Amino acid sequence: MRAKDSATANIRIAVRTSPRTTAAALPAASEAVPATSEAVPSAPSHRSGTLQAALGVTAFSLTFPATAWGLEGFGPWSLVAVRSVLAAVIAGGCLLALRVPPPVRRHWTGLAVVAAGVVLGFPLLTTLALQTSTTAHAAVVVGLLPLTTALFSALRTGARPSRTFWVAAVAGAAAVIAFTVQQSGGALTSADAYLFGALLICAAGYTEGGRLSRVMPGWQVVGWALVLCLPLTVPGALVALSYEPVHLTAHSVTGLLWVAAGSQFLGLVVWYRGMAAIGVPKASQLQLAQPLLTLVWSVLLLGEHLTPAAPLTAAAVLVCIAVTQRARD
Predict the structure, then answer these.
(1) Which is higher by pLDDT, 200 or 272?
(2) DSSP state of 152
(3) Considering the entire predicted model, what is its pTM?
(4) Largest Cα–Cα distance of the chain, in whole Å?
């Protein structure tokens, strides 16, 4: 998965030295630094990567409750378009301030996949689903996302996790699905089509974003994907706002700001950095805890009620996460 090729050749720079300079003070020829148009990030440690991926999961767990708040004052199309524009403004400002050069041409296809899956597809489909679905029912798609992401990663990169990894991943996904379906009364709704579509397109975006985060900083992957969508999101926001009524309230503004800055940018930054450090399959399994965190936020922020099955499911999921993190690829 590590792409170390570059479109430019290694350039050795002649250095004028004084007679006192020893040969030991000069870099060896094999250590010549390649001149590239992109800065390859130094890989964080496994523990740091796990922590960053966990922070991303925590940020994502607030997305559904924040979206529910946002829908109190915005229409679904307005909410998705405006959140993407605001996130792109934040990301674009960071890219300009740090004078980050555009990615090389071979990375734009991958960035387009990230944009379609994470910036546009998942937010739009889940927002449409949340118009008729509770956050508990919508959490089903998040429960399936880790396993789907691992499958996409295996197909895209050729990764082959161990049998223990897959058994724990399937068990964790089954526990989350059983819990969330029980929370929704076991009935499927018309929103399921949106949710399963969001599941597939987001898994593709996560996989491609994790791959790109190995050759450029994760925040740049997110930033360029957001900027890439501006030709669609700016006109979309203007059209949607002209057709859908807006009622600004404390909840709607807070929800909009969180899904734009927290979920759409900062959460994805630490998430992609975590995936680059510990691998897409293992990072994806940390998301098994996301539905349960979402349900906790739903209780605290939306006043929803949980059944006694919640702590049992939480314990089962935590065991599965521990197994997947220890299983060797």
Answers:
(1) 200
(2) H
(3) 0.75
(4) 82
Helix axes 76-97, 63-70, angle to 10 degrees: 120
pLDDT interval class at 126 (50, 70, 90): very high
Q: Which residue has the tokens 């991926």?
A: 53
The conformation of residue 249, written as its DSSP 8-state character, comes to: -
227, 91 in Cβ contact below 8 A? Answer: yes
pLDDT at residue 183 above 60?
yes
Residue type, 80: V
Going by the DSSP 8-state scheme, the letter that residue 115 receives in this structure is: I
Alpha helices by DSSP H, listed for the chain, are 46-61, 63-70, 76-97, 108-114, 122-129, 135-157, 163-183, 192-212, 218-228, 230-243, 250-257, 267-278, 280-285, 290-297, 309-326
User: How distant, in Å, are the alpha carbons of 140, 177, 305 from that of 326?
Assistant: 25, 23, 34
Nearest of 14, 2, 288, 38 to residue 173 by alpha carbon: 288
Spatial contact of 28 and 8, defined as CB atoms under 8 Å apart? no
Could you read off the pLDDT of 108-123 as tens digits, one per residue? 999 999 999 999 999 9
What is the arithmetic mean of pLDDT over 254-281? 86
